[in-house]
């Protein structure tokens, strides 16, 4: 069994597709080895980086691991030893991690102030016309006999005037990095789009269905309609609700997608499996490992962004910087692996200048941030 699971892990590292049986074996193994699974998860980002720069051949990876283990003359090993060997393989294969050589200034250097919350939000209408949306300005975007679309100052409002909706005519709302915007759909559902996100939706919903497509992150407050379920398509995840409030995080560049439920009831379909989620639970799908999970969470940790702040509780610096990089448009690199595991608890204002925010982290822990443009390199003091 150990040899089989090692072979499956080698396929994951090489970026190969797992069979249904292999995915099930990995899922069973995870239930008994949660700590070791988390070590595997930590390898996802460097593995993805290496794949983009040449890839990894499974046979080569497996042979390198076997040779490293043979040197120790160990036939049976603990999982953490195997993980260390795999991590070593990623370096032995010959891929240079060039981000450690990026030119940065002196330690603790912070550049010009940068405050998010702006950025040009764009609306693409049915015939491809692109309309820049102004902030804090009331304006009429569309007004005809069947539909009225207005910008009510950071909120786009759709109103169906009259007549039966016979076809889906889609609009696309695009929010840049550092921006945010709300839209009230024709059924009364409110969607709050986070930084770097895109929502594709009908101008008006037809009888029997309500369906939207999300890239990025958004908070949903779905208008109740017992006849027409509301569906959100986000990457590999489909969310079906009748009337509820929840957060969906599905950035294409991130290794996982998640749905956090605050009120109501949700049914999720992902990777050919179905899940029923209740308030206070979070569903997560890890793309690289093709694994799903459901757990109880403090929902405020995952939804506070919509209220103008971020809340963290014993969160690793790596988790925090992943969240902040989406909002501030940062590329984050670490000189010390130990820095990723530093933990923080507290709240930070969402609209604060990024330089001031990073300095606060420096004051509470033994860590230094060097910023040049949108690149941030982190190291221990």
UniProtKB/TrEMBL annotation:
Keyword Transmembrane helix: yes
Transmembrane segments: 79-102
Organism, as annotated: Butyricimonas paravirosa
Domain called FecR protein: residue spans: 173-267
Example of a GO cellular component annotation carried by this entry: thylakoid membrane
Gene3D superfamilies, per the entry: 2.60.120.1440, 3.55.50.30
Keywords of the record: Membrane, Transmembrane, Transmembrane helix
Span of domain Protein FecR C-terminal: 310-378
Gene Ontology terms: biological process: photosynthesis
GO molecular function: electron transfer activity; heme binding; iron ion binding; sigma factor antagonist activity
Name of the molecule in the record: DUF4974 domain-containing protein
Cell wall biogenesis/degradation among keywords: no
PANTHER family membership: PERIPLASMIC SIGNAL SENSOR AND SIGMA FACTOR ACTIVATOR FECR-RELATED (PTHR30273), PROTEIN FECR (PTHR30273:SF2)
InterPro entries to which the protein is assigned, alphabetical: Cyt_f (IPR002325), FecR (IPR006860), FecR_C (IPR032508), Ferrdict_sens_TM (IPR012373)
Signal sequence region: none
Taxonomic placement: Bacteria, Pseudomonadati, Bacteroidota, Bacteroidia, Bacteroidales
């Amino acid at each position: 069994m150990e040899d089989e699971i090692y072979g499956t892990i080698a396929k994951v590292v090489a970026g190969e597709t797992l069979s249904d049986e292999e995915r099930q074996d990995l899922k069973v193994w995870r239930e008994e080895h949660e700590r070791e699974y988390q070590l595997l998860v930590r390898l996802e980002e460097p593995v993805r980086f290496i794949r983009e720069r040449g890839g990894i051949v499974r046979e080569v990876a497996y042979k390198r691991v076997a040779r490293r283990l043979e040197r120790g003359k160990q036939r049976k090993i603990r999982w953490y030893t195997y993980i260390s060997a795999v991590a070593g393989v990623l370096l032995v294969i010959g891929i240079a991690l060039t981000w450690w050589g990026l030119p940065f200034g002196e330690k603790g250097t912070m550049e010009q102030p940068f405050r998010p919350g702006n950025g040009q939000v764009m609306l693409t209408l049915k015939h491809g016309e692109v309309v820049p949306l102004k902030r804090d300005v009331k304006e009429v975007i569309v007004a005809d006999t069947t539909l009225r679309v207005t910008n009510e100052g950071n909120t786009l409002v759709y109103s169906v005037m009259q007549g039966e909706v016979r076809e889906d005519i889609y609009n696309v709302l695009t929010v840049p990095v550092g921006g945010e915007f709300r839209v009230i759909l024709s059924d009364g559902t409110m969607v709050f789009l986070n930084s770097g996100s895109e929502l594709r939706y009908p101008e008006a919903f037809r009888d029997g269905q309500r369906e939207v497509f999300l890239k990025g992150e958004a908070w949903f407050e779905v208008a109740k309609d017992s006849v027409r379920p509301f569906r959100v398509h986000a990457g590999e995840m489909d969310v079906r609700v009748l009337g509820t409030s929840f957060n969906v995080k599905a950035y294409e560049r991130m290794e996982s997608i998640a749905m956090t439920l605050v009120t109501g009831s949700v049914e999720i379909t992902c990777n050919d499996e179905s899940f029923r989620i209740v308030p206070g639970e979070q569903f997560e799908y890890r793309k690289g490992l093709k694994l799903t999970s459901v757990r109880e969470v403090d929902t405020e940790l995952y939804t506070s962004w919509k209220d103008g702040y971020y809340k963290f509780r014993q969160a690793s610096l790596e988790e925090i910087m992943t969240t902040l990089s989406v909002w501030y448009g940062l590329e984050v690199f670490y000189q010390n692996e130990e820095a990723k595991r530093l933990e923080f608890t507290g709240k930070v204002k969402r609209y604060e200048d990024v330089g001031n925010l990073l300095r606060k982290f420096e004051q509470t822990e033994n860590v230094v941030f060097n910023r040049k443009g949108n690149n941030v390199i982190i190291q221990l003091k």
